Amino acid sequence: MKTFEFQINITIHEGQQLAGLNIDPVVKVQIGEEVKYTSIKQSTNCPYFNEVCPVFVILLFCRCGGQEEWDGFGKMKEQGAMSTDAFSDLFS
Fold first, then answer.
1. DSSP state, 81?
2. Could you tell me if residue 89 is left (phi over 0), alpha (psi between -120 and 50 degrees) or otherwise beta?
3. Cβ pair 8, 31 in contact under 8 A
4. Which residues pair with 8 in a beta bridge?
5. What residues contact 81, with CB distance under 8 A and at least 6 apart?
6. Domain ranges of the chain
7. Which residues pair with 61 in a beta bridge?
8. In this structure, what are the phi and psi dihedrals at residue 9, rounded to the nearest 5 degrees?
């Protein structure tokens, strides 16, 4: 089994017409167990962030029974008794 680790940069631009008046919005980015937050924008319902949240992702690659199995999100496809699930809640 091989693992590949790489970084995804997610850019948060702005929020528009958020419910409420004089709110202090913040954006939470969660992929797997990794969590990132933007800065808090004071007293606005149309915040402009323009911030980048770097998130690290690990993908698994396996050769099972002579065939390569990989679904792109760290989950190997089941083949016989061998299977694994590295990120059960990734992108859910």
1. T
2. alpha
3. yes
4. 55
5. none
6. 2-69
7. 2
8. -105, 120
